[in-house]
Protein: Alpha-hydroxy-acid oxidizing protein
Organism: Massilia agilis
Amino acid sequence: MTIITTIEDLRILAKKRVPRMFYDYADAGSWTESTYRANSEDLQKIKFRQRVAVNLENRSTRSTLIGEEVAMPVALAPTGLTGMQHADGEILAARAAEKFGVPFTLSTMSICSIEDVAAHTTKPFWFQLYVMRDRDFIHRLIERARAARCSALVLTLDLQVLGQRHKDIRNGMSAPPKLTIRNMLNLATKPRWCLGMLGTPRRQFGNIVGHATSVSDLSSLSSWTSQQFDPALSWADVEWIKQRWGGKLIIKGIMDPEDARLAVESGADALIVSNHGGRQLDGAQSSIGALPAIVDAVGKGIEVHMDGGIRSGQDVIRALALGAKGVYIGRPFLYGLGAMGEAGVTKCLEIIRNELDLTMAFCGLRDVRDVDRNILLPGSF
Ligand code: FNR
């Protein structure tokens, strides 16, 4: 039996169990993948100050994100095609998050629909929206999210155009996979995945089906994206969406202090410092590198969250120490899902919480809400 103690263990198991094109889809960054790598590497450069002889009884990892109680300040990031890592992937991940007590964010580009996820969960989840040219369609998605009791809208602004990921092109990525000889040979080595998929009817893009004419492979998905996603998106659109939604709005994809200020002016309740996990602008700064200047610019008036490269509880603490109120994980939960379904997402969250709790203790703290720059070694960040 495989013993799982780290996120890396989950990644290795997922690689064995998930068809290559979907594993690569999750694992890829754009172009040279330099920003993807920098997200993790820059986190590792940040060192802690170890403290001793401090009372470490009764520790707490609990916090709040946009006013919602969370078991730890970590949320599941919106990820497209999650239902291709494992059958019913979005439902399983949402259920694991709900039981654990952290937010789940459903992507516009999910396989399971907003209604599918709502029908299989009891607590509100968050819905991520892309800005599309067809404003009626946006309006309908907002109404569907409202009807499903979503408690926040995460508006992603960094995908006016789609980043190019070489692996997806080489693999001829499509959902579901086309039955070429190469794919069939690969699928034959993934019996668990195939059996799971046979047992579920949900293999379509649940939120856009009906609206999309054809998104059966990557070329049609990228041409659909370039037809539908609005390259002329402006801050006025963000205000329009905020008005239509009326609830909590989290703006995702901010890497620049000036954009952070504009996000605040357009009515955001929180923003996410994110380079889309290194999948969009290759050559952009790492998210952790961008975080401090954005916190300095707007951190007093708004919650600043971040994502990109978080692979452990230590990384969560590093981001909190530099001013993030919370972080999101993308690939780590996808690896858990691909490796072991719902139990794998729970395992991922348990690993991170355990590491987070111990790291905070080694730094001499009992409450995660007390984490600040004082726990970091000067000169290492
Ligand atoms: C993403 N991301 C993403 N973001 C978003 O707003 N909408 C989406 O549909 C997607 N889709 C998506 C698919 C996959 C496979 C990945 C890996 C990522 C970006 C995601 O929300 C988040 O910003 C990154 O995943 C964070 O980086 P890590 O944690 O994966 O390193």
